[in-house]
Known about the structure:
By secondary structure, this protein is mainly α. It has helices at residues 2-9, 11-33, 38-77. It is 91% helix and 0% strand. Helix 2 (11-33) runs antiparallel to helix 3. The radius of gyration is 18 Å and the shape is elongated.
Amino acid sequence: MGIANSAFKGNAMDALIKLGVTALVGNYAKKNMRSSNWKKKVLGAALIYLAPIALKFIRKKLENYQKNKSVSSMEQLI
């Protein structure tokens, strides 16, 4: 019952998107870390450390945009 309730709220889709992005970034970083080129190794290490910070920043910006957009549409209705 709890899974169905969270699916209606959008939490399930949000979790799937987070897992997908994490898998893509992780696989790309792993591929770069296995390379013999030192530049790709540095890029892989940077992805491992900087990608979570960048994704969190982007998510906060999108949440603020969505909140502002919903508030402005509510103001237009009133």
